[in-house]
Every structure is written in C-alpha cells, then in structure tokens.
Amino acid sequence: MINAVFNFATAVFPWMRVERKEKAVDVAISADQRIAMYGRYMRAYRGLAIRGLTTNVTAMETKRIRFNFNRPVVTLAAAWMAGKPVIWHIDGDTSGEAAAKAKKIWERSGAESSLIEACLLAGILGDIVGSVVWNETARTAKIEFIDPTLCSPQFDPHKFGQLKKLTLGYETINSDGKPVGYAEDWFEDRMIATTEGEPTKEYSYDIFGGELPLVWIPNQGVFGQTFGDSELVGIIDLVEEYDHLGDKRTRIVDYYASPRPVFEGVQKGNLDLKDNSVIYLPIGGKAYFLEWAGSGPDIQQQLDCLRTAISEISETPAVAFGQVDSGFSGASGISLRVLYGPLNAKTFRKRATWGPRLEKLMQLALRAEGMEVALEDINIQWGDMTPASDLEALQVLQAKSALGVDKETILGEAGYTADQISEMEEPEEAPGEQTESPEDDDNGNPNNPITGRNSEPDPATSKRGEPNPSQSRLRGRGQSQRPGISNTSRKTA
Fold this sequence. Notes:
By secondary structure, this protein is an alpha+beta fold. The protein folds into 2 domains: 316 residues, no CATH class; 36 residues, no CATH class. 35% of the residues lie in helices and 18% in strands. A hairpin with a 2-residue loop joins strand 17 and strand 18. The N and C termini lie far apart (107 Å).
C-alpha cells in the first residue's frame, strides 16, 4: 500500500523522484566480473594501480605502486595459515594405520609447500579449488589445488558451498604447435574432457564412491556466500591513496632540494652574471627562493593514519610493515598474543572454512586407496605460528610435569618428533658396565680389542682398581684439589 501511494505521488509530482546511484562494490555477480576481480587483486598484489574500468578483464591503464602494502598483508596471512606442519588425526584408529596412510597421502601431495602456495593464491584472489587426483599406474591418490581463474563452478542450491558441476578450461598447444581449447566438465558422477569441442576422454568416479572429487574453498568465507573474500578487500584504495600521498611528499622534497629563484626589480637582460655563479643585481633589485609561506601540509600525519587504517582493516599487525606497535611492552607470551591477536582471529576464521574441506579431500583420497573412514573421524590439526617466550613455555611444561602429565606428551608439546622421543626413552648403558670383557695379557693388563696390543695402565692406579698414592688429583665429580685440604681429609669427608 505504501509503495503504491509513493509510486502514484512520484508520477504526479516528478520533483519527488530521487535518483539513486549505487557505487560499484567488489561483489562477484557474474563469471566475467568474478574473473575481473581476480585480475584486479592479482595486479594489486604485484603492485599495479588500476586506471580504468575495473569490470573489464583488461585494465585500461596501470601505474606502479611504490608503497605496496598489499604484498606483506597477503604473505603474512598465508604464512600464519600454513607456516607450520599440519597433523592428521583419525578418531578410533587404534592401530594407527589410517593416520599413517593419511600422512603418506599428505606428503605425496606436497604437504606444507603446496598448502602455503594455495593459501597465498587464495589470499590474493579470494578462492581456491581443491581436488583429489588418482594415479592408476601407482594406485595412489594425492591432493592438488587448482587456480580458480580457470574454473567455472555451479553449486547445489540445497547444500551450501557444495559443488554440483565445475568446468575447467584453458588453452594449450597441440602437436602441430597451434593453440587449441581444452576443457574438462566435472559432473556429479563423471568427467568429460573435450578438445576444441570434441570429446576426448570420459570416466566415472567409482573409485571415489560416486562423489565429485572437487571442493571449492573460499579464503574468508561468509555464510550464505559461495565465493570468498581476498585479503585485499577494503585496503586496495587505502594503499593507492598512501602511494599518492607518498609521491606528493617526494615531489615536495625534490622541490625544496632545488627551489626556483625569484628576482624582483630586474628586467630581462639586466642581470650581470659573472663566474662562480655570482649574480650582480641592479640597485633596488632583490633575489630570493620561492618557498612555502607559513606551515606546510601535514602529510606525515595523513600517511600515519592511512598506515594505521591498512593495518586495522586487514587485521595485520604493524610489525609486518616494519614498525613496532607503540603498545608493545616486551617479549612476554601475553604481550605477543595481544600483538598478534587480530591476525590469529582472522586465521581461526579461515581455518574453520578450510578445515572441513581439506578433511573431505582426505576422506576421498583414503577411500580411493581402499580405506573407508567417516568424515567426522578425520581431523586436521593446525600449527600455531604465534611467537612465544621460550622461558615461559618451559615453565608451563614444568608445571604440567608436576601435575602428572606423562613425559611423552610434554616432549611432544616441546616440539620433539616421535622418533626423537623414542631415542630419549631408550635405556642407556650404565657407566662402567661392559658387555664383553677383554682378555688380559700375561702381565695382568687388558688387551686393546681394536689394536690387539696391550693397553697402557692407568696412571692414576698402581694396580687394577687400586688408587695410585703418587697422584694428587682425584677423579670424579666434586673431588678437585683445593688449597688447604689434603687428600686424606677429603677422603675422610
């Protein structure tokens, strides 16, 4: 009713019409716009400012950004995400067979080297595609990541974030050296590959249990949106503005380094120039440099505000840009966690999105290798990149040991591997024990088992096992010779 009245009023009185202009935002509405945004983020990461239409795949004009804060924001986020090794746990795996197989699959897939590259690309673009690849010859599976710029996804409208179909297309070179179009259409039950529109290969997913071996992984997922957000969302314009002000500051410095001279009361041709740059002015003439009158613009304050805004919006600590936070009070564990708190919070949100999708890929890889594991039993454990105080960490481990935590758990938390812990727990041979006594020679001296010759007698003993009274130095801990104390008194003590 209200809308009808408003429409009638605006039709009768045109002056009531309000023209609404909405500014374009970084929301992928179509496939072309999504690919265009991927290109914009990649150029920003490389340090190129866009001049022209951002909805066009090809930028009209670019300018090099000298103060490129986009790069440290993305690289630090990727390192915080996957800088430390991940561990795969399988609930109910008493024998450890499933966990060992998952570890081999992960190592075969490139482990953290592949994961951090995927996190870097996803941090730039906002999305990444994960897939399970089956090697028929070796009968093994591995996890790979695909560039989302090559993919056109279709999602199940009834299952949030689940792929229903994905088309992977790119251009390749045939045997004749000519470019040809290659595409793979991944459906829910099969894959069809085509070259220049002609089918060349087709197979089903029987080895994966009839499930699509692909997952779409958003970098920073928001519930209800299938595509993720780049790490650069919200800071691209700030970085370009910072670079613009930085250029202005440079031009001001250049101007004051070489200011323009001004002459008053002098006509053209009246200057008498001599050697050594001495200028002789006529009577009443005046010469000075053209400089800023009054207080100059506070460019540095605006630059500091922009730098702070970039750090806060991207949830990246200022130390990533080479600055120590003014509130940083020391290297204690609490202060470090406060300093990296925003970055840790962002990383936890991202891992909540990445984790279930990586676990799904691992389930499909295990299934392909003949081991069926429930999805809820597969758990990925991420490493913590937050710097810590070594002294405080040792104090915490000592406190846990006093509470009765077993030694193996404490050593594992200290960073030791299972093999290192096993070596520590092996019983050492007690000092003085010999598994095989060497035979003595005719004089009662033991033979050297290596050279076969008689070993020299110990100068500290006159006979085997008896101390030599001529030696004033005693062996053993706490038995060093000190002035004023004789060997006899020390032995009595």
